[in-house]
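Quick question, first post here. What does this chain look like in 3D?
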Amino acid sequence: MTLHEPGYAGGASATRLDVVLNVRSCVSEDMERTLRAIFQTHFEAYARAHRLPAYVHRAAYWISHCRTAALGGHLRRCPEGHSARAFYNSCHQRICPQCQGLATERWLERQRARLLWCAHHHLIFTIPHELNALWCWNRAPMAKLLFGAVRETLVELLGDPRYLGAQPAFLAALHTCRRNAGCIMHITYIS
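> Answer (accepted):
Ran it through. Tokens below.
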């Protein structure tokens, strides 16, 4: 019985071992498990079945050819002529793990260094989008209402012995717009 036969997934006859063995037989040991390999194997079929913008096709092309001869390369040689090595050019796409892996790790390290050295919770409270127009014309009263409602909610819930049973301390920041200039009013709390 295979994974695709009716009744196999979750069926009474299927054991965990059967599933693991079948999955292992479907995935060859030498199969490359990278984003580039996925694009090379499946993107053309996916693109035929879905209408995609040109920038997606360009990104898929660059990622599927990243660090291959298709993008060209350069040769580095020892000045003494002992050895030479070919290096293929990168695609430099922002979602390519080969090109952006190191930058992503460095960014994550910087973010980890900014974390608080104590237990904390990051909470976001927002208003319904239907109230955005009201917010635009009444910013001060709406901000006061939103801060007050959130404060009362946190003090009540965290003061309850069933949840935390403590008097909370928190830091709040009001955010009114996103980078793409769309307005979304919300408060970020760290408690």
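Residues 1-26 have pLDDT under 50 and may be disordered.
The first strand starts at residue 73 and ends at 77.
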